[in-house]
Specification:
mainly alpha, 9 helices, 66% helix, 0% strand, elongated
């Protein structure tokens, strides 16, 4: 009889624990991802891309791949954006802005890279929820704007470098 009473008490306890109302709300419950997707598609400027004409110069800078990988922000699902941004933070920290590839080791690129890096590091991807969403959106937009400025300058410096290389080859002949 004792065992039966013990078993019955245990079952009641387990059953009452199961029915307890757990009011923990996950970020996905507090975030309107449809609205965030719309914001990304409609309100963020389109991304600039590297000029493929200068791929021989660009390919010499290995860290360029990390910078370009941030363009995935525009094509990723907003539910995956938090993970993407956290990975980007880890990767962007690996780039040493005191040792760029020689062609790109100029103040114009270093300065734009530092702004871009700062914008990535300051975004709080843990705060993608309704009360913090506007700050998150503004920071996301800042990342894209600084990315575009950096890419534009990289393209400009690559073009100048290519022109100088062409002049040098012509003067050799």
């Amino acid at each position: 009889m004792n065992k039966l009473l013990y078993l019955l008490t245990l079952l009641v306890l387990i059953n009452s624990c199961d029915k307890r109302d757990n009011k923990t709300v996950s970020y996905s419950d507090r975030t309107d991802y449809v609205a965030l997707n719309s914001f990304i598609k409609d309100s963020i400027p389109s991304l600039n891309s590297l000029n493929k004409d200068y791929s021989d110069i660009l390919s010499k800078w290995k860290d360029i791949e990390i910078i370009v990988s941030s363009s995935k922000i525009m094509s990723s699902d907003s539910k995956q954006l938090s993970l993407l941004l956290e990975n980007l933070k880890i990767d962007i920290k690996k780039i040493n802005d005191k040792r760029f590839y020689v062609t790109f080791d100029v103040p114009q690129i270093i300065g734009r890279f530092r702004v871009f890096k700062t914008n990535i590091l300051k975004i709080n991807s843990d705060k993608i929820e309704d009360k913090e969403i506007q700050t998150f959106k503004n920071n996301l937009k800042s990342i894209i704007i600084s990315y575009n400025a950096l890419i534009n300058m990289i393209n400009e410096i690559a073009k100048k470098s290519d022109e100088e290389k062409t002049k040098f080859k012509v003067s050799e002949k």
